[in-house]
Design goal:
With 539 residues, this protein is mainly α. It folds into two domains: 247 residues, MetI-like (MetI-like fold, Orthogonal Bundle), CATH 1.10.3720; 208 residues, MetI-like (MetI-like fold, Orthogonal Bundle), CATH 1.10.3720.10. It is 77% helix and 0% strand. The chain is built from 24 helices and no strands. The longest helix is centred in the first third of the chain and has 35 residues. It is globular and about 75 Å long.
Length: 539
């Protein structure tokens, strides 16, 4: 009775564990966001404004650079959509042969960094590549038949290795869409093409726009492949100003303009989505019957095979041919093992920290009152959207000035990886926490469980599969990261992507090919493990 009376006099029930954790987590979160993301970007903006110069670049050349960058990213996205949309439809909605194998292989390009794809296609379609050599021997002419270098080569390569973003989202949306909507349209006399144009594509528009945005941002921020293909865009210009001309002011100005373009793209996408209403019509949940293709089954399989050949088989075949014998591969592995170890250690540390910090952020933001949660989410997403070269320059400017003891250490690399990939962890864990009933925590507390016990025995087991999945995702992303690593790595400290890039620039294609295959294996294997666990309903 006394306890009840005290509770009544207090006017509220005891604050649950989640409430106290949310308060502490929110404070820590705000401090973390301030230390990780905002200061580098704010200092970059300050440096750009104070510089007041573009060095060797005029306003006209800046406008041309912006036009080239946007055009390349836009055309690469269109090319990626042209690859992803028919492949997703054929795999999910038709009886095309080998569609299950195609579904699995279509994701493999995510494990092939674009700069490795560019390296492979330089060997395959370059001026002295395999195709030109074969055509010259066939015709007896030394004419340069194909040339992958330049603007259109950049569009070609980036589209090939970004289409899985669109494929994954669109194929998932197709599987979730009730097939009765399309069946009703066909029963009313609509042709298959009309159903596709008037029913299917409008329902898929949010997924297409979301996947297209990911592909566009990737193309906008890419440095490695465009540098190898000799395409002058913002990222390559920033690297040139910083590492060739040693002009930090011009690099800061260019980076600031690219940040503004990136934010404008994100804002435009949000406005576009807010102006339309997308409603999913649901009824009885069932799987759509595969659409019989009849005589078009094998031509459809040939189309899917062509897409997979361009994005998977040709790059991997070129890399295997470059590597040569197994003995040469083992020699490269032994010689460069230190760089492999660096990559594994960095990616593992970044993934572990992102998983832990991401859990705290997601937990706090989910329970924060008012606009705090939305502000936290938006700020973290900015870090992911900022190109790696811009992020690297921002950290150089900030830490070289105020924290010189931290600049030039491995710790800066870990911070850069956290800023870029923390949102992957937060979004995944946030989705998992959304499905947990808060009454479970209250029930555990009513049984006299300590806060640590609640976290260890209630929350942790429920989100453990998601924690494993987000760790894997961040690990894969960190293993492939090149742009920021090139700028921030300490002297004498290289990673696997950096060595692949260096060997390619120096035309040491055998070493580059061997290391590229190792990098693909290290990035593809975790994805395959997660995919297998998902099939067994373990993740």
């Amino acid at each position: 009775m006394a306890q009840a009376g005290s509770i009544a006099l207090a006017g509220r029930t005891p604050e649950p564990v989640s409430g106290r954790l949310a308060q502490a987590g929110t404070v820590a979160l705000l401090a973390g966001v301030g230390l990780l993301i905002l200061p580098p970007l704010l200092y970059l903006a300050s440096s750009a404004v104070q510089a007041g110069t573009l060095g060797a670049l005029s306003i006209g050349s800046l406008a041309g650079l912006a036009l080239t960058t946007l055009a390349l990213a836009g055309l690469a996205t269109v090319w990626a959509m042209a690859l992803a949309l028919p492949l997703a439809w054929l795999v999910v909605r038709t009886d095309m042969p080998f569609r299950n194998a195609c579904r699995w292989l279509a994701v493999i390009p995510l494990a092939i960094p674009s700069y490795i794809g560019a390296m492979a296609y330089i060997t395959f379609l370059g001026p002295v590549g395999s195709v030109n050599t074969w055509l010259s021997s066939l015709t007896g002419s030394h004419q340069q038949w194909l040339n992958i270098y330049g603007f259109w080569g950049g569009v070609f390569v980036l589209g090939l290795f970004t289409y899985p973003y669109i494929f994954l989202l669109v194929s998932a949306a197709l599987e979730a869409t009730n097939p009765s909507v399309e069946e009703t349209a066909r029963s009313l006399g609509e042709s298959p093409l009309g159903v596709l144009r008037r029913v299917t594509l409008p329902m898929l528009r949010p997924s297409i726009l979301a996947g297209g945005l990911l592909a566009f941002l990737y193309a906008l921020s890419d440095f490695g492949s465009l540098s190898l293909l000799r395409v002058q865009v913002f990222t390559t210009a920033i690297y040139h100003q910083l590492n060739t001309r040693f002009d930090q002011a011009a690099a800061a100005m260019l980076s600031f303009v690219l940040v503004l373009i990136t934010l404008a793209v994100l804002l435009s996408q949000r406005v576009l989505m807010s102006r339309r209403s997308y409603v999913t019509i649901t009824g009885t949940a069932r799987v759509a019957r595969p659409l019989p293709l009849g005589r078009w089954r094998w031509p459809a399989a040939a189309l899917a095979g062509g897409i997979l050949s361009l994005s998977v088989f040709i790059p991997l075949g070129v890399l295997l041919a470059q590597t040569g014998s197994l003995e040469q591969f083992t020699d490269v592995l032994r010689e460069q093992w230190a760089f492999i170890r660096n990559s594994l250690a960095l990616a593992g540390a970044a993934a572990t920290l992102a998983m832990i910090i991401g859990f705290l952020i997601a937990f706090s933001a989910k329970r924060a009152k008012g606009p705090v949660g939305a502000a936290i989410s938006g700020t973290i997403q900015i870090g992911y959207a900022i190109p790696g070269t811009v992020l690297g320059l921002s950290l150089i400017l900030l830490y070289n000035t105020y924290l010189p003891w931290l600049y030039g250490t491995v710790g800066v690399l870990v911070l850069a990886y956290l800023i870029r990939f923390l949102t992957q962890s937060v979004q995944g864990i946030d989705a998992a926490l959304a499905g947990i009933n808060p009454h479970l925590e209250e029930a555990a507390r009513s049984l006299a469980a300590s806060p640590g016990t609640v976290l260890r025995r209630v929350l942790a087991p429920l989100v453990r599969p998601t924690l494993f999945a987000v760790w894997t995702l961040v690990f894969i992303s960190a293993m492939k990261e090149l742009d920021a690593t090139l700028l921030l790595r300490p002297a004498g400290f290289d990673t696997l992507p950096v060595r692949v890039y260096i060997h390619t620039v120096e035309a040491e294609y055998a070493k580059a090919g061997a290391l590229a295959l190792l990098l693909i294996a290290f990035t593809a294997l975790p994805w395959l493990v997660v995919t297998r666990l998902r099939e067994k309903k373990l993740v």
